[in-house]
Amino acid sequence: MKVLEENRRIAHNLRPTDLDNLGLAAACTSFCNDVQLRTNLQFQCRITSANQRLPSMVELHLFRIVQEAINNIEKHARAKSVKLQLRFQGHSVVLKIQDDGQGFDARTLRAVKKIRHGLGLTNMRERALSLGGTYEIKSSPGQGTAIAVRVPLTATKREPNPKRPKLLTEEVALPTEN
Question: pTM to 2 decimals?
Answer without folding.
Answer: 0.78
